[in-house]
Task: structure prediction
Amino acid sequence: MLAGNILAPYVFETKTQRFLFVLNYAQIDVCLGSIDQLHRAVSLPAAEQNQMIATIATARQSKISFNKSWLEDLHEEIILETFGNKITPLVVNPGRIVLSSTNLYFQPFNNIEPHKLLKVRLAGIKRIIRRRFLLQQVGIEIYFKELEPVKYLYLTLKTQGARDTLYNALLDLPELQLSHSDKQIMTLRWQNGVLSNYDYLVYLNSLADRSLNDLTQYPVFPWVISNYTCDTLDLSNPKNYRDLSKPIGALNPTRLERLKERYNEMPSPKFLYGSHYSTPGFVLFYLVRKFPQYMLCLQNGRFDHPDRMFNSIPDIWRNVLTNMSDFKELVPEFFDTEQKGDFLENSFDINFGYRYDGTKVGGVQLPPWAESPEVFVNKLREALESDIVSRQLHLWIDLIFGYKQRGLAAENADNLFYYLCYEGSVDLDKIQDWNQRHALEVQIMEFGQIPKQIFNSPHPVRTCSHSSLLKHHKLLNNTPADTWGDKTLLEPLHYCQSHKEAITSLAVCHEGVSVASVGRDTLLKIHSLKSGRQERSAVLCTMTLSSLSILPDNSTIIVGCWDSCVVVYDVECGRILTKLAGHEDAISCVQWDDKRKRLISGSWDCTVRVWNTKESWSNMKPTSLVSQLVSQLDLDNRIKCMAISKDNDQLAVGTEAGELIIWSLENHLITQQLSDEVGASVNDVTFSEDGRRVISCGNNCTLQVYDLTTGMQVCNQVFDEKLLCLAWARESRVILGGAQGTVYLFDLVHVLLLKQVRVHRDAVLCVDVSGKGDVMVTGGEDHQLIVWEIS
Result:
């Protein structure tokens, strides 16, 4: 109870007091029995006391039933009923969880909750996330839409199995309409500047089980500014920024050396840092002025000593750089511009005491370059979104959420903490000794917990800043054309049905005036893109023509055939220059390495071969290609597709078994194996314009994007049909062809499907885009070749 309704440290009085109770709704013998049980529990040691009280509480709670008259109507059916806890900062409140066909109920077993019965509609649920609590997978956090009585509900259950049962029961109900935010999609949006650094860190914290409802796992943010003493702050100067490639404890080389000396003399399990970067105490250290009641709860009714409080930004930064036991990172409030830095002011005018020099503890002392908390927070947010931070934020993500979090990589990065900070280090359910379990629970809660690891490989670097994208959008919005309009994105211009069977491959010539196509009818055809008329037709083989590539001279076309031969055709002269035997089985794809003047072919014989073509095509004999073999890539499965990077130095190879391999054309070594999904044939592959990413599609109905710097998958978008072909269009857009005849236009920057059109009666087998990106051509199983305009 607050004396005078003023937040202040608790006053403890030891005296004899007499209380008189009048029981209106209970029998005195029942009440005395409960008091006697609790009195006996008080005399026990702490762990046994908690165990006995928990047993008493469980027995009483089991007698409390859910009143079905609370249901909304007679048609509402109860799906699941179980026990659980509602988690709020520093409070674990038990209650009954009831899931019905239309609502979710939480009935607390006491009256300290603001709602005697919390009822939320299933239709109002926006997102459901499984959480860990005390390093155990027993939590579930539910976010609600604006019209619901609460914004979120954090529940924990007794076991992981009970939690998963509730989670699956929720997902099975048709009333649920969840909003999805796939990890790969969010990473790709962040990479492209669509998502700000702040929003991405908020998302990663949530993904790593950090929640505003759990002070033991509060969201963690990095120190980004290193200058807190100058009168002005130049955010364009890299010297004013902290090195994000190192943990906070490794920024000072002198202190790190002393920590390593202690580490080397330490018995196992060894740790480098004796305290964590985020604990309930550290969170409330920063937020005590905003949530003083939480600090009183945490510290048994007392605030910290005035000289140990959060009094000065410059002092705290100096301390985290030099103190042997202080490695605190920041909390989101330091960057939250909506709250305007209110946690830095003593808005409640609380008496926190006086410092050693006699000054009263008030608001936090700011650096000279910030005249107010709002300016301070705005400056930090601006620094967080700067290009300097954007270029190295992925390195800090590796330390906190990624592969440098544990193991040898963490050791090499000087990022080692006490073993109890890590998930999986101890299984509390297997500990039978209540004293030991209680001690471990307290240590886990108070010492700090490493976030759940969400990346196992290096995180990709950001390629575009949020501010740059905003400027780009401003320019786009000033243009008269509605580039995102539904009608102007894809428009078919010409329909041609000159092939007698399915069109298997096509390519737009480099000048963009014509398109060449081949098909199962053994014909090579060339059409004008302007008129849509056929300009040339030639029979090249007696079997299916599977692939083709147009050389930069626009006059020479290389065609792969099912008879294991490569046909070289001269468009201007209208004749076959040569036909060369290159493989032991059907050739599935061909590419041209213009940098080295080499032919690359892939085949059903599970090989990719590189051929020298220095002599004139007309001088080459049908058997002479064998003597020109430069290198060979041997795999275990049929080659389905290939793509060569713009610099001609890398080849992406997709196989029938789902392998996606990057092969160096410089040294002919495999540099990366990006995918090995069994049975999901990779049907097409291409490189992005900048060569930093590889995009593939296949029988698993999925568009996949990989970052080549790290090998990490940054997008995994599932469609409604098998994807058979793709092509890179301008402005980071991808054209996809589906097995049911649908053509998709997908934006990789916003990770958004812009348009889908079904014009082919059967599967779309091939697609290509002109060099300017304004014309697209698709070929299908229905023998049709369609020319499109891309707005």
